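Lab notebook page, bench 4
Experiment: in silico fold of construct C2
Operator: M.H.
Input chain length: 645 residues
Purpose: comparison with the prior construct
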Amino acid sequence: MRIDVLGAVRALHDDGALVDLGGPRHREVLGRLVAAEGRMVTTETLVNDLWADPPARAVGALRTFVAALRRALEPDRPPRDQPRMLVTEGPGYALRLPREDVDAYRFQDALARARSTPDTVTDLGEALAAWRGPAYADVTGSAWAQRERTRLEELRLEGVELRARLLLRSGDGADLVAELGAHVAEHPWREPAWGLLARALHRAGRQADALSTLRRARTMLVDQLGLDPGAELRSLESDILNGTVSPEGARTTWAGHGVRLGPRTTVDLARTLALAGGDALVHSRRDRLVAVQAAERTGDLSLTARIIGAYDVPALWSRSDDPEQSRAVVAAAERTLTALGTGGPTDLTARLLATIAVESRSADLSGAELKRAHAAAHQAEALARDLADPALLAFALNGVFLQSFTRPGLAAERDRVGAEILDLATRHGLPNFAILGRLVRLQSASALGDLDAATAHAQEADQLAGTIESPLVSVLTRWFRARVMAARSTEPGGPTAATTAAHYRAAEEALRTAGMPGLHRGLFPLALLGLRLLHNRPAPTDPHLDWGPYRPWTRPHVLLAQHRDKEARTALAAVPDPPHGHLQEAMRCLIARAAVRLDEHGIAAHAASFLRDARAEHAGAASGMLTLGPVAQYLAEAEGCAARP
């Protein structure tokens, strides 16, 4: 008896005659047991895999299918003898067949042998030739079949490329041009395939075509993925131009998992680079998105979910450095969640939800997006708690923190989240999340005006960062120390406003090259404005200052400083509600102060209604990087203005 699933599911007698397996459900049961590779599959799993909404008599129907399959597979078995192929085991069933009697197993074994023993390339070629179409081609609409189809197809593509590489390395392969040309045309994102095609063309004496192929590869990679070709393609092009191509072909080690390793390796590297800051951080975000897109193209939901969720880099700021890129990652995560459905692996679901929460930075969201992200954060948290996975819970809590800016006045709530992240990270050896916990608590203490506690957290964060070489932390704590100077510049004997401004400028220079435009842009002018407001001085009017995303709320103050009150009134009337984020209280306070200056009672009353919940906090200080002074002062002014006739 032989069973084939590399194409439609079928069984064949030893003489090659087809076995009548029955209807589609019978073939699906057989295919599902083949996919288990000899492991037992429980009755419950089989029922759920066969029916999205199992009928009342689903178990009975399954038993009927199994009984019919047993008769078909072992027609000569006496009625009272135990089945030898499709056996009952514990609470389910298993398929017992030698691996050489199932085409999918033979193929996987041939591939494994070829990876370690190049002389078995002929066996690999025969195994590849046995494919009759997509795996489990006649099992449609089943998630398990789609997963297996995708997994086996990826192995097939790897096999095609490994066979070509081994043939070229052995000195053969000139006749591979047509095969590899079709392979590249169908799978243009597989960079190694382009190199193999170019080598085959070169082996066939077609140097010009080989160079043209490499140039087409470069164009495709740059235009569609935004990436330059890898080192192997660049080196091959140079070797062809210089006439130094090795007659034995490429000697690079075969990765063993094709494009599966590519996205995973890329995203792991991206995680590491993200913590380095500067250009490395910028490149890490780009590489992460490329890895996500490459994973999606494989059609492997599990791979895609793992690639999306693997970038668990702690995130502190409520505005994205690249909003479009973040939206693309969120969209990919949402697509993958939908495709996985409610029965997807819990850990992958939690990571996808946490990714949505972390990447949906609150300052960039519409109201509907904010609600979805807030829900995703708390769903991820609940799942992570059930799984008792400390690293996953820390990542999920990072999302909860970033979605905790739904209204002003929540510094104490964020402090509780930061404390739990810190506790988890300390107990389970997660240094990057320990730093995040310290910085969250620094921000919360700063918002509440507890500068001694915030300073202690800054010192601990710096010390931790020194042990793991995380240079971005000192950039943030330098800003915090300038924020402390700003607060104390109003005290007798405190630093002067000029000295504080100089420290802000030094902090700005460090941030400028840190690779965090979502944090950097507009922050320095806003810090200077806050410092001037603390000293009851007009806003800075330097035309070279880039107010970035804060321009609508700072513009009335700049115009007032220029004595352009009529324009300031018009600008104030056009000011939108501030986005949710670290600086929402600061923007509300700017609205309130401008409304008081311009005697706009209604605008002052509206601002006051939002500031009441934050009366115990300091405006802008939730950032841990600047301050406009106590919210209570702005609130009192706004309420006084609103009460005037």
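Observations: The CA atoms of residues 318 and 361 lie 5 Å apart. Strands lie at 2-4, 10-12, 41-42, 86-89, 92-95, 618-619, 629-630.
Next step: discuss at group meeting.
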